[in-house]
Design a protein that fits this description.
This protein is α/β, with parallel strands linked by helices and 309 residues long. It folds into two domains: 150 residues, HUPs (Rossmann fold), CATH 3.40.50; 159 residues, Rossmann fold. It has ten helices and ten strands. The protein has a ten-stranded mixed sheet, with helices on both faces. α5 links the parallel β4 and β5. α4 runs parallel beside α5 and α8 packs parallel to α9. The longest helix has 29 residues. It is elongated.
């Protein structure tokens, strides 16, 4: 995983404060370009010449006001001396589109390697804000979600499930752990097949030896995968559990852990389904989280061009 360009969303409230600070730190660590994007949501009507002319002057004033507000907000946030010396206009971009659309379009136009957004973990499960849900659903690159109560992470926790996204997750975990000099714990959670459960909540109905064989096979496959991965000199440990993946991940993730995990297929988090493991971990986790979309595999030419750490 190579990070050359980082895009972070800026909101005028407090939701994005820690995300902006984290993005600045990541950009400094990786030597990456940082772009701070604020979507003001002031656009002209698409139809009607008269309507466009009527709203043009109002829209121009609204955009100018939004730019001044974003500049003032960013000035209050900047603590890193590198960015304190730079003119704000070198890295602040105020766009007419709403927040999520502005972030996603900018990321696609400029080939971003990482998107950073903020999240309040104390909200109800489905309420991450429209921007967060939309970005997680359609991002063309990994998304770093930074909680409002941010802190330094001291370990990378990488849950894997032996899906096509596993290789991407391990690469990302390795890159971040090496950059910040922290250990890695790889976690695989075995999910017993549904046919093995009593629908009325009783003990497993399926043959115990079949479930045990499946569990042993997955455990062996995960250990072989981790052992064969090039970790360099990083300290790595492997843990195996059985049960509900989201619950097991959250139970093992400390407040000082960075969770790196993937999403599945083209849906990502678009439907905000409660059964989505990544979404549930995101809702209940205490620390930062990097969400790696599996759809990156649809762009092998980009992945193969990246240099791993």
């Amino acid at each position: 995983m190579q990070i050359r360009r980082i895009v972070v969303g800026l909101e005028l409230g407090k939701l994005s404060d820690q995300a902006v600070l984290r993005a600045m730190g990541l950009a400094r660590e990786f030597g990456a370009r940082l772009d701070v994007v604020h979507g003001c949501g002031v656009a002209l009507p698409q139809r009607g010449v008269a309507r466009r002319a009527f709203f043009a002057e109002h829209a121009a004033r609204a955009r100018a006001s939004a730019r001044e507000a974003a500049r003032g907000k960013l000035e209050l946030l900047v603590e890193d001396p590198v960015y304190a010396r730079l003119p704000l206009d070198d890295y602040l971009h105020v766009r007419a589109e709403p927040g999520a659309q502005a972030l996603l379009q900018f990321a696609c136009e400029h080939d971003a390697d990482l998107l950073v957004i903020g999240a309040h973990r104390h909200r109800k499960l489905l309420d991450f804000g429209g921007t967060g849900r939309a970005v997680l659903a359609r991002s063309p690159c990994p998304v770093w979600v930074e909680p409002a109560e941010a802190r330094r992470f001291e370990r990378v926790l990488a849950p894997i499930d032996l899906s096509p996204s596993t290789e991407l997750v391990l690469r990302a975990a390795r890159s971040l752990a090496a950059r910040f000099v922290v250990p890695v714990r790889v976690l695989h959670v075995f999910v017993p097949p549904e046919i093995a459960y009593d629908p009325e909540g009783g003990p497993n109905a399926g043959p115990t030896h079949v479930i045990d064989d499946l569990c042993a096979a997955e455990q062996g496959a995960s250990r072989e995968l981790v052992a064969g991965f090039d970790w360099g000199a990083l300290p790595v440990e492997t843990e195996f559990a059985a049960g509900d993946p989201a619950e097991e991940i959250v139970a093992r993730a400390g407040a000082s852990d960075l969770i790196v995990m993937g999403t599945h297929g083209h849906t990502g988090l678009a439907r905000a389904v409660l059964g989505s493991c990544a979404y549930r971990v995101l809702a209940r986790g205490r620390g930062p989280m990097l969400v790696v979309p599996q759809r990156e595999e649809l762009h092998p030419e980009r992945s193969s061009a990246q240099t791993t750490t």
